[in-house]
Amino acid sequence: MSVVRPTQRFTSSQLSAGGEAFVRDAGRNLILALHGALKNLQLYPPENAVVQSAIADLVRVSDELRLVEGDLEFRVAGEFIFVNSTRLRLDFDNYATFTRVLNHFRESGVGELKVLTRTEPRDWTVFISFLLKPVGDSPAARFEMLRGRFQSTHVTAFEIAPPVESEDDQKHRSESKEVAKQTYSKSVAATKEVMNSMRMGQSPNLKKVKRVVQGIVDQILSDEASLVGLTTIRDYDDYTFTHSVNVCIFSVALGRRLGLARVQLYDLGLAALFHDIGKSRVPSEIINKAGQLDENEWRMVAAHPWMGVLALFQLKEATEFPYRAMRVAYEHHMKRDVTGYPRSMRTQSIGFYSRIVACADGFDAATSRRSYQSVPMNPADVLAELRDNPRRGQDPIVVKAFISMLGIYPVGTFVVLDTFELAIVHSVNPDAAFISRPMVLIVSDDLGNVKHPGDLVNLADRDAAGQFARSIIKTADPERYGIRVGDYFL
Ligand SMILES: [Fe+2]
Ligand SMILES: [Fe+2]
After folding, report:
1. Which candidate, 216, 153, 210, 157, places its Cα nearest to that of 184?
2. Ligand 1 midpoint to CA 314 (Å)
3. Which of 111, 132, 306, 328 is deepest in the core (most CB within 10 A)?
């Protein structure tokens, strides 16, 4: 049986204090209460006791918020939820709840719900039952139906409005993107410094590296899409450093999906950032060599996993250095069945962190342009390859989580639409049901006129007839169309 998660009750001093922190906590409670009501009303009839207690919770939380704040306005914009202009934070624990509530509002064309007066349980029951009605009509049509429903059932406590993207929303979006950009470039610079100092035999500043990893973890927990989007820049000149940072970002995001806690994500991120540290002991002419490596050169490259372990051991602060990072450096090319390199007689299976990093590494390496790979593979094809080709030696569960994170068409995939427009995948669809219908940036219209910065559209959007307005026909090579994917993520 489904049970409503109890929402936190506030003390009278918290209530009288009000303010942004209060709104954030109370707003979170409101989402939990909405989610509880949606979940239970989907399973049971309105007169059921579980449903009634969920609705009563909703009445209490919303009335409390409205009384303390003077008014209550619940607004969804893009991937964000606002309560009285305070943006609610999305974190690991409430990700699924947020997304579900967001999608119900979006599908019914509701951008804003104002609670005007004290509410009765019946008001919420009418509203929630409507949100749960099977989707068949366009959001705009559903919005009008809901408005009619409020009138016919004499629900006057609510006022609804369709979604609008205000200047504030755009500001939030661009601020979040700005922070992500800074995190990314700082991470690349610090990684460069560390690797170069190790190459010269010096001991690097580990505190700095730890701060980099912390920055990446924090950013992923607050806004995963912005940072993951930046991995598509893939600067050729800085491949070694951007590769390490990308593998760190993918690993942390993946670890989060697989249920790791924040401290574990720090460990995993550090391990991922250092996975190729052994390459600092291989001559750079070999690392950067264009074309085939001869046998001897290959042997040197293939030694980087255990060279990495040695390098980590020789760090001044090695005692503080997690053993797991050494294991990742050693195992990341071993493959799940231990048929990769280095050959090991003893290892029976590779560690969990190593599997995560191996998946992130395999993806980033194959989608990047490197000295010995002039044509990077399309991200969507790489994912299919990691999933379907057993010789890649990936853990199927990790790859499955990776695909559900990146979507079947990962961020940065260049696609042709059935409208003859060209687009770049911008982010995974917030509704998990639409894994093959991501958010995309239209970068060229049907006549081939290039657009910059491009128009963001949701491929799950329907036209007036209820049909999907746009669908992906195929993935393509952006260079053939003279488009640089990285330009759209800067
Ligand atoms: Fe490697
Ligand atoms: Fe690597």
Report:
1. 216
2. 19
3. 328
Cα 330 to averaged position of ligand 1 atoms, centre (Å): 9
CA of 218 to the centre of ligand 1 (A): 25
For residue 482, the one-letter residue type is G
Alpha carbons 51 and 28: distance in angstroms, whole number: 20
- 40-49 pLDDT, tens digit per residue, is 999 999 999 9
Distance 301 CA to ligand 2 centre (A): 11
Q: Of 236, 446, 456, 477, whose CA–CA distance to 380 is shortest?
A: 477
Strands 450-458 and 472-475 come out as unpaired
Rounded (10°) CA dihedral 165, 434, 488, 367: 160
* pTM of this structure: 0.68
Rg of the chain (C-alpha set): 25
- Per-residue pLDDT of 170-217, as tens digits, reads 677 678 788 888 899 889 999 888 888 888 888 788 888 889 999 999
Phi and psi, residue 304, nearest 5°: -60, -30
Å from CA of 215 to ligand 2 middle: 21
Ligand 2 centroid from CA 430, angstroms: 29
Centre of ligand 1 from the C-alpha of residue 366, in Å: 12
Q: Which of 163, 223, 176 is nearest to 458 (CA)?
A: 163
183 Cα–ligand 1 center, Å: 23
Q: How far is the CA of 219 from the centre of ligand 1 (A)?
A: 25
Distance 276 CA to ligand 2 centre (A): 5
Percent of the chain at pLDDT above 90? 40
The rounded Å distance from CA 258 to ligand 1 centre is 22
Are 214 and 271 within 8 A, CB to CB? no
Cα–Cα distance for residue pair 177/488, rounded to 1 Å: 12
- Which candidate, 194, 9, 17, 45, places its Cα nearest to that of 132? 45
Poorest-pLDDT segment among 58-67, 169-178, 237-246: 169-178
- Number of the ligand closest to the Cα of 301: 1
Q: How far is the CA of 445 from the centre of ligand 1 (A)?
A: 40
When the candidates are 1.10.3210.10, 3.40.50.80, 3.40.50.620, 3.40.800.10, the CATH number that belongs to 168-406 is: 1.10.3210.10
